[in-house]
Design a protein that fits this description.
The structure holds two protein chains of two kinds. Chain A is of the alpha/beta class. Chain A has one domain: 3-Layer(aba) Sandwich (Rossmann fold). Chain A is built from seven helices and nine strands, in the order βββαβαβαααβαβββα. In chain A, the strands form two sheets. Chain A has a six-stranded mixed β-sheet with strand order 5-6-7-3-8-9. Chain A has a three-stranded antiparallel β-sheet with strand order 2-1-4, with helices on one face. Chain A is globular. Chain B is of the alpha+beta class. Classes of the chains: A alpha/beta, B alpha+beta.
């Protein structure tokens, strides 16, 4: 199986001298293409740091990391940004939608960044939102959307440029159980594909059944990895 | 991404308007005060500017500015006329008598006595009457503002009589003189009459007004006069700046205006800077998200600069509009006539606004450049 992420001996420290804290402790991780992997564990165990390193937003202090066959650490800063722009999609816990942009414009941001013309980008974004059942909300501002709708917009933004790796940080934590389940179903429907990997950081035990792989973290280490029920893949196949 | 930057800025209506107001207020205050200051500087040399016939002003060597003169001996005129390069030289009297109208109103006035034969130094912008009428007995020309003061409520007209030093003066013309610094009426008459309108002294001649021959530069002529006569010879332009320099050095005017301009600059920079910085801080997560998605630092800097420039242009335009409106009203008032919004002041205000928005955006740029995109993963 082709690896989307292959991490070996990754460590990460923050601060210096007495204030130095080790967030990741020589951990190994493999995530295959077409896989939906979940990182679970208590607060402060290093999940967020790990996905930040995997996404190239933070540099590991030591260890080897391969993402989509490339080693971001060996890239120049600009190259790394372009790599992220082309290949990664993000779903943030707080959605981080731009409040002054409409839903469609928010979704289109990765396309604007890549130099798409505004009209074409917004049309593509609107189509994607329509696929997510939000055809009538494309012109709404984030403040006019419910939490679930905002999360769908955030998911559409993460996928609109067809990335090969999607990183989701607590995508259901701001939602109630029903909305959370729906979001995961949608994620499974539109994100899980053989040529794409999805990493989800979550506290939410109710959505673990969607995972192909579940990596349990504690105190900066991956304590064990277990196979998930793979419900996401089943949903994706049924589509 | 430019439209994203603009929408981010305009989306927060309160801060957007606050930023524009700060810059508009600041540029209004700066442009308005600098314009008034420039207008006052021009008023200090208004009588010099209005005398366009001569090239060189000759005066006592100790003269510092136009409003304080020590009379020259009568032979000064002949000594100046003997300097090579002189086309003509005429006496010019400047005094400050009290002019009283028959209605009882009186006021200190600036009296200019012109050479009887040539009338060199006469006003060129006449509203009523003609310069040639100055040759009539007891004839004087008064400026419009002076007429309005001495004859309030009356339309400009000729024939009214003034009294100066117990002598009769009949108004034969009304001129549009540049407003003087002291806002006194400006009265023109012949030299021979002028000396009698003030208390008679042994010497009377305030200046000699000299014209250079074609091909002789006025500055060179002034130097020659100085060398040949021991008197001070300066061009009209130099005399104007001498006068401005005197007032700048010996009055609190520049300090007062400078303080107001500084307040405008400081208030504009601090308020705009702080508001812009708060705006950026409140949008840090959004900037972080953009960085995570793949927006480069250069692009983010460009976005912030665009936001700053937009705010600057809007604020500056409103500020200049307010200033222009202010002067559109006040320039028609007699007391504030001639004080206008100069293009140089507009350009300088534009430069200051650019400085304000640059400082305001620099703090924000620094903050965003230091921002780690990983911030977006922190709840």
């Amino acid at each position: 199986m082709e690896h989307a992420v292959r991490a070996r001996g990754i460590s990460k420290w923050f601060g210096e001298r007495e204030a130095r804290i080790q967030a990741l402790r020589r951990l190994d991780l493999d995530i295959g293409m077409g896989e939906l992997a979940m990182l679970v564990g208590p607060s402060g165990c290093g999940k967020t740091t790990l996905i930040s390193v995997v996404a190239g937003l933070l540099d590991a202090s030591e260890g080897d990391l391969e993402v989509l066959g490339e080693q971001p650490v060996r890239m120049a800063t600009r190259q790394r940004i372009l790599f992220r722009r082309r290949n990664l999609g993000f779903v943030f816990q707080q959605f981080n939608l731009l409040p002054a942009l409409t839903a469609a414009e928010n979704v289109a941001v990765p396309l604007f960044v890549s130099g798409w013309k505004r009209k074409t980008a917004v049309e593509k974004a609107a189509d994607l939102l329509a696929e997510l059942g939000m055809a009538d909300r494309v012109h709404a501002l984030p403040s006019q959307l419910s939490g679930g709708q905002q999360q769908r917009v955030a998911m559409a933004r993460a996928l609109v440029h067809d990335p090969r790796l999607v990183v989701c940080d607590e995508p259901t934590s701001a939602l109630d159980a029903q909305a959370g389940h729906k979001v995961m179903e949608l994620l499974a429907e539109i994100a899980v594909r053989p040529d794409r990997a999805v990493i989800v950081v979550t506290h939410d035990n109710r959505v673990l059944d969607f995972a192909d792989t579940i990596a349990h973290m504690e105190d900066g280490r991956i304590t064990h990895v277990e196979p998930g029920a793979g419900m996401a893949r089943a949903v994706a196949v049924n589509q | 991404m430019n439209f994203v930057a603009v929408r981010m800025l305009t989306g927060d209506r309160a801060k957007y308007l606050g930023l524009i107001f700060a810059i508009a207020f600041s540029s209004f205050l700066i442009a308005q005060q600098v314009s008034i200051f420039s207008g006052l500087l021009n008023r200090m040399r208004s009588q010099i500017l209005d005398v366009t016939d001569g090239d060189v002003w000759v005066m006592d060597p100790a003269t510092q500015y136009v409003d304080e003169v020590y009379a020259l001996r009568d032979d000064a005129l002949y000594r100046v006329r003997g300097v090579p390069g002189i086309r003509w030289a005429v006496p010019l009297f400047k005094g400050q008598p009290v002019a009283r109208a028959l209605n009882g109103r009186f006021r200190a006035a600036i009296l200019l006595g012109l050479d009887d034969s040539s009338l060199a130094g006469a006003p060129h912008k006449m509203i009523l009457g003609s310069i040639e009428s100055l040759r009539d007995p007891d004839a004087v020309i008064i400026d419009l503002a002076g007429f309005h003061f001495l004859f309030p409520g009356l339309p400009p007209r000729l024939g009214d009589v003034l009294e100066m030093n117990d002598r009769r003066a009949r108004i034969v013309g009304i001129s549009d003189a540049s407003a003087p610094f002291t806002s006194f009426p400006v009265i023109y008459t012949r030299y021979s009459l002028a000396v009698n309108y003030v208390g008679r002294q042994r010497t009377q001649m305030s200046f000699v007004l000299a014209k250079a021959q074609p091909g002789t530069p006025p500055a060179l002529l002034a130097k020659r006069i100085q060398e040949a006569t021991g008197l001070r010879g300066v061009t009209g332009d130099e005399f104007g700046w001498m006068t401005i320099g005197y007032y700048m050095r010996h009055t609190g005017i520049p300090v007062n205006f400078g303080l107001t301009v500084a307040i405008g600059l400081i208030v504009g920079t601090v308020v705009a800077g702080q508001t812009f910085y708060i705006f950026t801080i409140e949008n840090l997560k959004q900037f972080g998200a953009l960085k995570a998605i793949g927006v480069t630092n250069a692009r983010i800097v460009a976005m912030i600069l665009l936001q700053a420039l937009l705010v600057g242009v809007m604020g500056y335009s409103i500020g200049m509009g307010m200033t222009a409106f202010f002067f559109a009203i006040t320039t028609h008032q007699e007391a504030t006539r001639g004080i206008v919004l100069l293009w140089q002041v507009m350009a300088a205000s534009g430069g200051i606004v650019l400085f304000i928005v640059s400082v305001a955006s620099l703090m924000s740029i620094r903050r965003v450049l230091k921002l780690e995109p990983a911030i977006v993963f922190r709840g």
